[in-house]
Prior knowledge:
The chain is of the alpha+beta class. The protein contains five helices and three strands, in the order ααβααββα.
Amino acid sequence: xxxxxxxxxxxxxxxxxxxxxxxxxxxxxxxxxxxxxxxxxxxxxxxxxxxxxxxxxxxxxxxxxxxxxxxxxxxxxxxxxxxxxxxxxxxxxxxxxxxxxxxxxxxxxxxxxx
Length: 114
């Protein structure tokens, strides 16, 4: 398995959790302090830190610490890589369905002329 495939696996596993998607949604608006998430998600600070750790390992979020405040930022490039992977599959299936449609039209056209 390539490093890129492993990174995609970690990314999709991270996005499989609703609380982590809520963190991503929040960070899509602006950077946020770690302490902000506990109240918003209704979970303890250690739980927030676990979720953020998963998101950071997946490359979706980065954080920086200034004094006692840790601020998180969304990595939009990582989301773009996931979107690209999904779009490649969507395009592949679109081409396959288009080819099937042409085949069915051709097949139907031949049957009506018999």
